[in-house]
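Q: What residues go here?
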């Protein structure tokens, strides 16, 4: 028996399926991937490629902070919820399930360490057969801006009732809101400003710029990782699209959660 040919034939349907999946996803599409253990993954939105300047401003040839996103990527429309994270804990028979908050399924999962978020995306990739990961800090800001150059995706004034933070005129008064409680940005993403801080893939190196192609900065101090977005416990200035923070990857911080991205390959 020609085992090499048999192996090739075995992988061919999977390759064709992957190509078909790529062909079916276009910019602006929303989708969920089925899980092998049952149920569905988080709702995803495919965002357009393009370029932007870290921290805001108009792209130009001499902009040292210009980032070019030249690939198709999908973001989870919301932060990962308690319900979605509990699904992972149950499926992996995690000992953390006993201490994880019961109920409140639509609230963002919070108090999650970077290492735990990484474990979630590894599980999600295995369950769906697609590559999920945490967004790079550049991808995160690009998605949060949704084509804008202002402090917030809706303008330079935080206004009232547009996001969940301590000084945003929110009815939640510093408490987490169910995901999607506030209007989405132009690309269909919710709560990119406020609610919970979100982990990114990036390591910390204040003396080096991130890669210009949008990929994560995987050098420097990788015991700490970059946070974006601010939280319900932040003031309006701290939830700007360009605001950065960082924390130790193993820390459990009460107002820190995450969202995921899926690479949509050619």
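A:
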């Amino acid at each position: 028996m020609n085992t090499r040919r048999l192996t090739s034939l075995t992988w061919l349907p999977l390759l064709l399926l992957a190509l078909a999946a790529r062909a079916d996803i276009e910019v602006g599409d929303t989708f969920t991937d089925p899980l092998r253990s049952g149920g569905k993954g988080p709702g995803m939105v495919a965002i357009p490629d393009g370029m932007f300047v870290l921290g805001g401003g108009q792209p130009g040839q001499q902009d040292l902070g210009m980032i070019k996103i030249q690939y198709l990527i999908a973001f989870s429309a919301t932060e990962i919820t308690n319900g979605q994270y509990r699904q992972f804990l149950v499926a992996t028979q995690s000992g953390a399930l006993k201490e994880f908050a019961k109920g409140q399924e639509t609230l963002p999962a919070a108090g999650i360490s970077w290492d735990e978020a990484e474990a979630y995306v590894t599980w999600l990739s295995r369950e769906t057969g697609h590559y999920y990961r945490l967004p790079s800090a550049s991808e995160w800001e690009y998605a949060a801006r949704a084509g804008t150059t202002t402090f917030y995706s809706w303008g330079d004034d935080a206004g009232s009732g547009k996001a969940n933070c301590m000084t945003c005129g929110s009815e939640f008064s510093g408490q987490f809101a169910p995901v999607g409680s506030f209007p989405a940005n132009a690309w269909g993403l919710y709560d990119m400003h406020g609610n919970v801080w979100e982990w990114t893939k990036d390591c910390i190196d204040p003396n080096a710029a991130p890669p210009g192609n949008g990929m994560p900065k995987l050098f420097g101090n990788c015991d700490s990782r970059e946070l974006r977005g601010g939280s319900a416990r932040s003031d309006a200035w701290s939830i700007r699209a360009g605001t950065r923070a960082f924390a130790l990857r193993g820390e459990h911080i009460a107002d820190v959660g995450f969202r995921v991205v899926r690479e949509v390959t050619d």
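A: Context that may help when evaluating the design: DSSP finds four helices and eleven strands in the chain. The longest strand covers residues 197-204.
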